[in-house]
Amino acid sequence: MPSIAHDPEHRLWVLSGPGSSYVIHLDDDHRLRGLHWGPALTLEQAVSLLNRPAPGRRSFEDPADATLDLDPAGAMRYAHAGVQVRFPDGVRDLELRFAGSAEEDGELVLRFADHHYPLAVDAHYRLRPFTDVIERHLVLRHTGTAADGPVTVIRADSATWVLPRLGEYRLSQVRGQWSAETQLNRTPLPYGELQLTSRRGTTGHQANPWAMIDDGRTDEDHGAVWSCALAWSGSWRLTAQRQPTDRVTLSAGFGHDPVTWELTPGEGLTTPVCAGAYTEGGFGAASRLWHRHVLDHVLPYPDDLRPVLYNSWEATEFAIDVTGQIALAEKAAALGVELFVMDDGWFGSRTHDAAGLGDWTPNPARFPDGLAPLVDRVHELGMGFGLWVEPEMVNPDSDLYRAHPDWVLHHPHRRRTEHRNQLVLNLARPDVADWLHETLDELVTKNAIDCLKWDMNRPFTEAGWPDAEADPDRLWIDHVRNLYAVLDRLRADHPGLRIEACSSGGGRLDLGILARTDQVWTSDNTDALDRVEIQHGFSQLYPARVMGAWVTDSPNPYTGRSAPLDFRFHTAMTGVLGIGGDLNRWSEGELARAAELVAAYKRVRHLVQLGAQYRLRPHGDGELTAVQFLAPDGKECAVIALRRSRHFGHRDRDLPLRALDPAARYRDTATGAVHHGAVLLSHGLPLDLAADDCASALVHLIREES
């Protein structure tokens, strides 16, 4: 179990999980220093760190740079500062004094206050059971009166993580763009400040708010990893700082330059959670730790097995009506689909993408009797009913916009930039947030909706709020807070409702949105070969349980590339399986094979969605990639192997597995072959893949009881 140990005499705290410790120390100048982040230490061992010689002071450098766990701007510290403010008289330096500590239910709070100005800063640390992940955030409070005026918060990072000296440093993160998200990138960490960020009002396709650091020698199975992730679904920034002294910190928080926050007297600002972890056992162990953390401490319904879904978009696009949707639902049910999702085009005047957003009532020409006939038929077929919505957006050609043109983000005397024929509703406005909840609550209630696919297809522009009573910059944060509040209210009102987060694919993927949804749409790119790379990067931090993956048509509608049906299915089986192709065009043979593959997925779904994931042959390691999912009790596993191409007629090499019992025997449920655990671990699982390119296999192994 996690523990928090405190030595009052030395003003030192040790936060320990099952396999690691984080040590912080309050020095004589009331500065909170990060002394250790690594293997587990006892309190006595941690105190001994104070006896180690301090680095020599250089004339123009403060040795505290890149060593502070709470890092305010001020004095001779010229490196990155995680907390930056401006007082009404123009003073920017913070001089914090320790004001006490409190500990309750696995949470440590260290309290500080500026020695002159009315600002308090509380640093929170939470330890969760059975994990080495530490969750951190700050609370800033204006403790003065109206006479003191507001305090401008320029930056309030949730956490600054102080890394040990490693000699060399390598940064792992993901980069991307629309339809090419979460591509893993590992590069030496340069000297200076490297900032990963989104200034778009959403998490963004271009980067994701997490980072990992190693010494450049760590691989999938060996070596230490230091990592952190921010739970925030709006603009964010993560700064990796490497000093000339080779001290390194990671600092992450919400917001972006030049957005600030006016803190009025009596008001507080709570930052989102930034979680961090030290792990040994390579990048694979780091990923499994994060996967377990998401399942145990982030997701609202972690034990739910997500259903196999069918989405109608690629079959119909905007050519949608009740008859066609029922026909697709009947075909989907015959495949074993459990959730039928009707996508865009069902509401208002939405016969194309330039009208109707905001008018969330069924199109009377397409659904003359409302949604009930379709929903009832879907339920009769034994499936849940899901519906696509994009509730944060509005088309100028809509009844909502004509009634409330002031509800969108805009500046006076500036254009209202349309993207995808859309404008962004200002969800920071309480009246807009209330309208949104009431509208969706009525939609779900009246139509017995089981799932919402919640889309968000464009970033912020002209992010203004001309009639705001307070600082209009607050909309960058309050939009996300109110989004969270609407989601939370809907979940409370409708406990059976499940929600998939989407933002033009993977543009809103983070621990904050996952705390309120059940899965995310990974990418609009459903090409199976591209998805191998996208899903590999996704798996570095996020579990398969939340990764939506579809089987679509061949040739692929986005890339034009062809791939066999089995390969498309097996690629999608490494996440939450969905089907998005035009079933009206599939042959009888394809439909029959699809039903077999859906059934095969259901037999291993509990392993994929709830088991431990091992990347056996990561993308980029030759032409074969493979993933193993192991049951928590170790009694069964699933292996999904994908070979992109075959060279020179060579037989595929056997695939060594991970974490099996070497003394046990494992039976292949398809062939009946029995394998020794020790042989599977050392020599590997024999593969019998087709000779063609894009060959694949699913192998389900069950441990035989002695």
Automatic annotation (TrEMBL):
Please state every residue range assigned to the domain named Glycosyl hydrolase family 36 N-terminal: 31-263
Keywords of the record, alphabetical order, are:
Glycosidase, Hydrolase
- Give the Pfam families listed for this entry: Glyco_hydro_36C, Glyco_hydro_36N, Melibiase
User: Glycosyl hydrolase family 36 C-terminal domain spans which residues?
Assistant: 625-701
**What CDD domains does the record point to?**
GH36 (cd14791)
Entry's EC annotation: 3.2.1.22
Q: What does the record give as the reaction this protein catalyses?
A: Hydrolysis of terminal, non-reducing alpha-D-galactose residues in alpha-D-galactosides, including galactose oligosaccharides, galactomannans and galactolipids
Top-level enzyme category: hydrolase
Looking up InterPro entries in the UniProt record yields: Aldolase_TIM, Alpga-gal_N_sf, Alpha-glycosidase_related, GH, Glyco_hydro_36, Glyco_hydro_36_C, Glyco_hydro_36_N, Glyco_hydro_b
Name the protein family: Belongs to the glycosyl hydrolase.
According to UniProt, the name of this protein is Alpha-galactosidase
